């Protein structure tokens, strides 16, 4: 059984984001980049399934410029078996990513696709649902627990919903998107980092996968959120209620 994991290279979560002067996006030049945290969780879950003997291979996929290879090497050092890089300089929106993933799945034939529920750079939370729709596969989104039953060729997913937990049983092949509470990703050890340098990374282009990249969204302007006003001290409950009613739009 193969598991495919999609990983994305994003601005590191600890970096203070700066908007470009022309307001076309955020500054990425000379900025620390890393693997999307939700993708780390997806990869950790795939590796745990393989280590339990319920899968034979974990394949990681990243899409974007040449620098994505560094992110793939990180994933290989964590324990993935091999990597695939779809190289493109085009801006990739969820539908394009979903089409590329579908094309790769048609080539690799994995039984399970695991990916983060969203990326911290754009927060779309759409790609997993779109690729499941394109493949006509069942999907379990926001997974907080995953149990694979190899004999029944099914996977049970606990997912967090507004009312608590929902449990889904999906026939394989399936798509799973991961939530924060699914697991704690491991750190790559030095020996594994060295081994990752010799692991295979196969390259494709969108043209080789017969996928046309086109922008279905237009970014008009990127601006920073308004700065919060400083708090004020009030001398009485009556003054607090007055401010809440007249300044905070509380009725």
Please describe the topology of this protein.
Layout: E1 2-6, E2 9-11, E3 33-35, H1 37-51, E4 57-64, H2 68-78, E5 82-87, H3 94-108, E6 112-116, H4 127-135, E7 139-149, E8 154-161, E9 164-171, E10 174-178, H5 190-196, E11 201-204, H6 237-247
Organism: Actinidia chinensis var. chinensis (Chinese soft-hair kiwi)
Main location: mitochondrion
Protein name: Electron transfer flavoprotein subunit beta
What would your notes on this structure say?
Pfam families: ETF. It comes from Actinidia chinensis var. chinensis (Chinese soft-hair kiwi). Heterodimer of an alpha and a beta subunit. With about 250 residues, the protein is an alpha/beta fold. The chain has one domain: 3-Layer(aba) Sandwich (Rossmann fold). The protein has helices at about 35-50, 70-80, 95-110, 125-135, 190-195, 235-245, and strands at about 1-5, 10, 35, 55-65, 80-85, 110-115, 140-150, 155-160, 165-170, 175-180, 200-205. It is globular and about 65 Å long.
Beta-sheet strand percentage? Answer: 25-35%
Determine the oligomeric state from the structure.
Answer: single chain
Supply the number of helical segments: 6
CATH-derived topology? Rossmann fold
